[in-house]
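User: Second chain of the day. Same drill as before.
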Amino acid sequence: MGRLTNNEIAHRLREIRTLMEFAGEPFFKFMAYERAAETIENAPPVGGLLDDGSLTALPGVGKTIAGRIGTIAQSGSDPYLDELRARYPSTLLEVLAVQGVGMKTAQQLFERLGVASLADLERALDAGSLTSMPRLGAKSIENIRRGVLAYKGRTKRTRSSRFCARRPLRPIWCRPAASAARSRPSAISTSSAPRRTQPR
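Assistant: Same format as last time:
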């Protein structure tokens, strides 16, 4: 495979950062990956920095993180990221993306109820399992339920946008409302419209 883009590398660095925080790593350790991700997003193409050996000259990119960036750029992953993914399913990122679910709540849901995906969270909500969680009252659980619906709405719109972007001749539901309205035939034909009476 070809080298990953800067944005793709930054995405994986943020995945490392999130899973490190989920694992309970110290703040300064996982935030180093957040800072590196921000740097990479705004840096020249990583491929060129790797070729001329100037990657560690970037702010917030030390020797260890630079090594991980190089491995990710070449292969799409890194042994440390693979280790974190083996311990914590990548679908945990879905749970963390739900409004109302913070890091500590997600950790407890995973440890106590085995919630590791959006589908797991929906099943736990339907079964009423979240009522057994400490510090989760009825209002908090309702907020999480609404957060799940909002998350599903966002992902549905994203999938729809990607579908429309790939279509050379977009279906009518992919078009803006104004252009879609113009493309529809008028409900009233001109022949049936009332005629204006000429004055005598």
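DSSP finds ten helices and no strands in the chain.

User: Great, on to the next one.
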